[in-house]
Each structure stands twice: as structure tokens, then as C-alpha cells.
Amino acid sequence: MQNPSIEYDYTVAKWFSYLAILFGIIGMGIGVYIAFELAFPELNYVFGQYSLFSRLRPLHTNVVALGFTLSGIWATWYYVGQRVLKVSLKESPFLNGVAKLHFWLYFITALLAVISLFARYTTSKEYAQLEWPFDILVVIIWVLWGVGIFGLIGIRREKSLYISMWYYIATFLGVAMLYLFNNMEVPTYLVTGMGDPFHSVSMYAGTNDALVQWWFGHNAVAFVFTVPIIAMIYYFLPKESGQPVYSYKLSLLSFWGLMFVYLWAGGHHLIYSTVPDWMQTMGSVFSIILILPSWGSALNMLLTMKGEWGQLKSNPLIKFMVLASTFYMLSTLEGPIQSIKSVNALAHFTDWIPGHVHDGTLGWVGFMIISAIMHMAPRFFKREIYSKKMLEAQFWLQTTGIVLYFSSMWIAGITQGMMWRAVDQYGNLAYSFIDTVTVLHPYYTLRAIGGLFYLTGVLMWAYNFYKTMTAAKQIEKEPQFASPMAA
Amino acid sequence: MDIREIQGFLYFFFIVFITVILYGYIVHLYRSEKKGKRDYEKYSKLALDDEPTSSPLEPMEDNKQKEQ
Amino acid sequence: MFGWLEKRPFFFAVGVFVVIAFAGLIEIVPDFAQASRPVVGTKPYSLLELAGRQVYIKESCNACHSQLIRPFKSETDRYGMYSMSGEYAYDRPFLWGSKRTGPDLHRVGNYRTSDWHANHMWDPTSVVPGSIMPAYKHLFKNVTDLETAYAEALTVKKVFNVPYDTDIDGDGKIDVKLGSFDEAKQRALKYALKVAKETKRQDLVNMVENGKIPEIVALIAYLNRLK
């Protein structure tokens, strides 16, 4: 058997890492800003109509979900993919070209998307706000990624695909299907020859549109915030700790479990709405079953650390990853609870929902992307991580931020839900709507501060990454497991 | 039979089908390990042993020879 | 079988796709025909209302306001009759929203007036003390894009057979007229003038009289239609 020495090509992985950091700062910066707007409405007018809450909120969700997260996913894909398939992008000029095109087209589309959202172009469907010309660009980007995945698989040296690869493939397929169906729209200019050429109208109407949107919305969460992040943790946690996955069989089983169950749970976004009853019930039931495969993966990760818990103390990257899987468990328990009909009646439309989303995104997605990129940094630049202390400080600051965030939103959501339904002794509503808004001021403030903590952590991360790139001590060979860091 | 009923049947059989498949998969995983056909746990090395100098766990060429 | 699948990435991918696509197929497709039938009395949006709806979407009002009243006493007391599927038959896209930072608007036309909306959008705290909603003063200057609204109406009429220029309820009269762009525009201007006068703001009336409909007027026409 030959023993080839492969020189992996990290160029595109690096580019996507820079982009993840950039979009992280922008997206979360906007998030913190609009969080403060809810507490202090005067902030709405700072940049005229361009800083109104309603204008910025779609920007926030799009930049963090489709900017920060996707960049993070692709940064890790272009790193992990080569390594577990044992093939370098350098070996195929074609695939290397596709990868670079993928990056640049994505970057350009992202910029256009930001401009179009500032200019009020939106289809109003959550996470699918972009108008049709940009949708077409997104499809091309996705096809390029698909060519990259299957091309690399085609020239691989390793026969079996590692579990992370399974998850990346599922991400690719899932998002492709969902995005295409949810964005079915008719450009009005092409039909009538008048009006705004960017404008389009949805192919679906009313309840159907809602069904498709939340089938998409829920599963976009599945295939952007869950599946690819699991791909990351299955690679980076074992690698950083030097421990094999606790049970590889469990990881395979959880994969199929997740694929089977996840798609059915979308109905829980529409409980007590006008969609058919059986579908709402099914949404609830499947959401609860969904705990099993989710916890299967999360426990598998925690058990991977069995007997090696000392690393949790000594290595901040392990801290990030272990807490990430803990937050994954928390939000995959919280979600099903919220889809129980009676809980949903209280929680729906309140701040508990953004609270739930942020447990998952800040704790699970954010932490995983941060630690994955910091794990890759020493390999990218052949240098130590610039500062371990700073990473530690970042960890604690961000963790405090998340706790502030979700605890304030829990209280806010439940308070608001209770006040909406409270009645006096004669059975009349006890509060007018505005009472239920003003009461939230302290929680909105607290939430914004929590967000500010997290954002500060992200800035520290960016600085640490930059210093690792430029100023940290050089290392001679690529580290095998734990990433080297200067105190 | 209207579309509702078809939907109901499809749904029911799909649930049965995936349950059987999933349990079958568990049996398959443990059986092939017991019989020594395939050790699934060794695949966790795919992540750990991915240095530039590592050789593949199951090289592509290797398998082709086996199949022939 | 399983071992075979795991070594063949292409068939593996097909397998994954079948598994995830199946749910959508059973869940969504059969309900399409059923859910899209309009409730009796539901009519398509007039040109001005549709233009207002586009303003609502452009400003992402749905980020904070829902349009879905759930069947609970506390909600029907607060907002009116609970929402029914057929009422949304002409809503492309749907605007249920997912968060009530502000109140539900599905029947706001029943209990708010044009001048209330105008005052509220100019300075929310003047009518609702303590409100955290921002003012939307730029809507008082922006001119409504009637052409795009007309393009949308014509598109849904042509492509989805939305009943414009049709006698829907069988009383021998055409319910919602669309016609040519010029006809539709004249009708929209007349309607806009009525709304502008209701707002009791002379600047809005002047703009409409000069043939330019401010976005706020279109938006109010849309909100008044929500009943």
C-alpha cells in the first residue's frame, strides 16, 4: 500500500472563515442594535428609515443565518471534506476552480442581498426574503457546492464516508429541495411587462403559502442550524480531544432517525392556525419524537469525552464544543415542549420563541462555528492560537450573554402570554395590549445587554483570529489533536 | 377512496416502513459487528487519523480488487 | 443492503432525498386543493389595497404584527372573530407573521379609522402612550408604485385566475374591477382621495389631487380592508 503525503489546500476554507467572521460581526451587530431599539425606541431614527426595526430585522436574520452560518458551514466543509476523503483540492484544478467560483459568487450575492433588503426588496417570507433574481443566484451557488461535494467524493481515496460527510450531503439535498419549493414565485414584470422588474408574487396563496413556508422555515432550521453543525461537531470534537466518537453506531442511527423525523415536525409552527387539525397534531407528536435522535447525537458527543473531562478544564475549545452540545440538548428539549398544544397556545407569538431560537443559534451554532474556526486557524497559518486567556475570557463572557438572553426572554414570553389571556372577575380582558408591551422593558434591556456580551465575545474572537494569522508563534508541523495555544 | 384516505394510508404505511427500517438497521449494525463482517466503530478513526501522511482506512483500489 | 448503501454515495444521497421528500409529499400536497377555496364574501384586493399591501410587505410590518387570530376567547375578545382559512385565499404571500411585538392586525379595519392610522404612523406615542413602534414618516412622502401593484394584480388574474372583473357572488354586478391600467389608476385615485380626506391631513389630500398617492394612503386603504 502506498503512503501518499497529501498537501491539503485550505485557500477556500480560509476565505470562508474570514467571511464567517465578517458576517458574524455585522449580523450580530445589527441584532444587538435592534434589541436595544425594542428597549429604547428612539434608536429607530438614528439612520433615518434605514435603522427602523422592521427594516433591520430581516437583515439580522438573513445575515446571521445565510451569511455567518453558511460561511461557517462552507469553511468547515472545504477543510473537513478534503481531510476525511483524503484527497486535496489541489489534485483537481476543476474542483478548485468550482470552489473559488462558489466563494466569489456567494460573496457577491450576499452583498447584493444586503443592499436589496435595505432598499425594501423583500418577499416577506422568513429566511426566504430575497426576491427572485437573487434566488436564482442562490440556486447557482448551491449547484456549485453540489458539484464540489460530489466531485470531491468522486476522486476520493477513502472508500467509506465519515459520518460528517453524511450530514454535509444531507444539508446539501435538504436545503436544495426546501429552497426551491418555498421560493416558487412568478415575476410580475415577465408576465405583464410593467412595474418593478424585481417584484414577484408567490405561487401559493394564504394557508398553502403558510404551510409551505413553515415546512421550509422549520426545515431550513433543520438543515442549516442543525444538520451541518452536527457534521462539524462529529469531526472537530473528536479531533480536538483525540478521542474517537463514543459510539459510531449510535451516530449512524441518529442520522437516519433525524432524517426520518425532522421533516414531519414543521406543522408545529402553525398550531391553532387554519391548517388542518391532524397536521398540527402530527407536528406536535413528531416534535416530541425528535428529542430521541437529537439527544442521541448530543449524548454521543458528551460521552466521547468520557474519562477525558480534564480537557474541559485545560482546553477552551473543548469548553466551547461541550457547551455547544449541551445547548443543543437544551434547545431540542425546549422546542418539543413549545410544540405541545397547550404550551404553544401560551408561547406562540411571544418573546419565548426568539428566546428559544437564540439558545440554539448562540449556544449551539455560534459556539460550534467559533470553535471550529479556531481549531482550523493553527492549521491554516502554521501558527499557535494567539491567546488562550482571551479565548477563555470570550467563553465566559458569551456564556453569560446567552444565559442573560434566554432567561430574560423566557420571563418576557411567559409574562406576555399570561397577560394576553388574563381576565378580571367579570371575564373581561384584564390588560390592553400596550400594557403587555411596556411591562417588557426591563427584559428587553437585559436581553440587549446579553446580546452585547455575546457580540463583544465575537469581536474578541475576530481579534484573536487576526493575531493568530499575523503575530502568533510559528509551529513547525501541523498539530494532530489539541490546537496549540499561547497562554 | 378520497384523497384524505389515501393520505392516511400512505402516512400509516410510511410510519410502519420507517420503523421496520430503523430497527432493521440496528440489528444490521450489531450483527455485522458480531459476525466480524464489519467493525463500524473503526470508522471513528476517519476523523482522528486524517494527517497529510496518513493512509486511507479503506483505500478505493483495495476494494476494487476485493470485488473482482 | 445497508452496507451496500453506505459505500455508494450516489445511491446514499438518493436514499436521503427520498426520506426527506416523503414527508413533504404526504403532508402538503393533498391539502392544497382544500385550503385554497375562498370563504363566501372574500374578494380580491383592489388596486389601491394591493399597493398598500405591497407597502406593508416592503416595510416588513409582519416582523412585529401577526394576521392570525387563534380560536381562543382571549383572542376573539381582543381582536374579533377567529381567522378562517378561506379568508386568505387571495393572500400572496401570506402575512400571518410569527411574532406579536405589536397587536394582531387581521381585523384592524373593524376598530381603527383612517385618521387614527395616519396619526399613529406619524407619531405612534401620540395615540398610544408607551408604544415602542417607530414612526413611519417617510411613507407620507413616498409615492405609491401603482404600476407594480397593477402588474401583480394582472399577473394573479392571468396566471392564477384570481376573479378580477368577474361577478363572484352572482348578483349581476362585477365585484372587483381591474380593467386597463388607466382605468384602474383612475379608480385608485378616487379611492385614495376618499381615504386621504378621512385622514384629515391636507398635505395628503393635495398629493392625491396632484395625481400622486402617498404610500401611507395606500397602506391605510389596505389596513381598512382587513376586516
Characterise this structure:
- The complex is a heterotrimer of chains A (487), B (68) and C (227).
- With 487 residues, chain A is mostly helical.
- Helices cover 72% and strands 1% of the residues of chain A.
- Chain A is globular.
- Chain A starts with 10 loop residues before the first helix and ends in a 17-residue tail after the last helix.
- Chain B has a domain at 1-35.
- Chain B has helices spanning 3-34, 45-48, 60-67.
- Chain B is elongated.
- The termini of chain B are far apart.
- Residues 63-68 of chain B have low confidence and may be disordered.
- With 227 residues, chain C is mainly α.
- Chain C folds into two domains: 2-35; 47-225, Cytochrome c-like domain (Cytochrome Bc1 Complex, Chain D, domain 2), CATH 1.10.760.10.
- Chain C has eleven helices and no strands.
- Chain C has helices spanning 2-6, 9-28, 31-35, 47-58, 73-79, 114-122, 124-127, 146-160, 181-199, 202-209, 215-225.
- Chains in contact: A-B, A-C, B-C.
- The interface between A and C is large, with 89 and 83 residues.
Q: What sequence of helices (H) and strands (E) makes up the elements of chain A?
A: HHHHHEHEHHHHHHHHHHH
Which pair has the most extensive contact?
A-C, 89 and 83 residues
**Biggest sheet strand line-up of chain A:** 1-2
Oligomeric category: heterotrimer
Shape descriptor of chain A: globular
Strand content of chain A: under 5%
The number of helices of chain A is 17
How far the N terminus sits from the C terminus of chain B, by CA atoms, comes to 51 Å
Distance between the termini of chain A: 42 Å
Approximate helicity band of chain A: over 70%
Structural class of chain B: mainly alpha
Sketch the major β-sheet of chain B: none
Q: Which series of helices and strands of chain B comes N to C?
A: HHH
Describe the largest sheet of chain A: 2 strands, antiparallel
Low-confidence stretches of chain A: none
The radius of gyration over CA of chain B amounts to 20 Å
Shape of chain B: elongated
Helix residue percentage of chain B: 55-70%
| Count of runs of 4 or more consecutive helical residues of chain B | 3
Secondary structure tally: strands of chain A: 2
Low-confidence stretches of chain B: 63-68
